[in-house]
Design goal:
Layout: H1 3-11, H2 14-20, E1 23-27, E2 37-38, E3 43-48, E4 54-56, E5 70-75, E6 81-84, E7 100-102, E8 106-112, E9 118-122
Parallel strand pairs: 1-3, 2-4, 3-5, 4-6
Antiparallel strand pairs: 5-8, 6-7, 8-9
Length: about 120
């Protein structure tokens, strides 16, 4: 059993792994929510982050997510990574569609609240 699956079983996000898959290495893209790279796995390692680029979290209408499902995103790029909520969604108590920023060589866990809105735990 992959370590990501074991951790997800322990942390209660097995559903996200079943729907999204385990892990992928991706590159950030776009300069806004509409053009950001879509997250398609429960663990995303973003290896290339050009200035001003980002990724977007999935919406439950695109995949079957439950409240409490978790997505882990690591920024292995050289610039800050914008992580957008799904269109019309919020991250924590921010304004609708405003991204969270992950500094280079940092990571964050995003917890699904209701399919559109997420809360974030960002590393220091």
């Amino acid at each position: 059993m992959a370590l990501g699956i074991q951790l997800s079983d322990a942390l209660g996000s097995r559903q996200a792994l079943a729907i999204l898959g385990d892990q992928a290495t991706i590159s950030a893209a776009g300069t806004n929510q509409a053009t950001a790279t879509a997250i398609t796995t429960a663990v995303a390692i973003v290896s290339t982050v050009a200035l001003g680029t980002g990724v977007i979290l999935p919406k439950s209408t695109a995949v079957s997510l439950n409240g409490g499902d978790r997505i882990h995103i690591a920024n292995h790029g050289a610039n800050a990574l914008a992580v957008y909520p799904p269109v019309g969604g919020k991250l924590s108590n921010n304004t609708v569609n405003v991204p969270a920023m992950i500094a280079p060589n940092k990571c964050a866990d995003f917890y699904n609240i209701d399919g559109t809105n997420w809360t974030a735990l960002l590393s220091a």
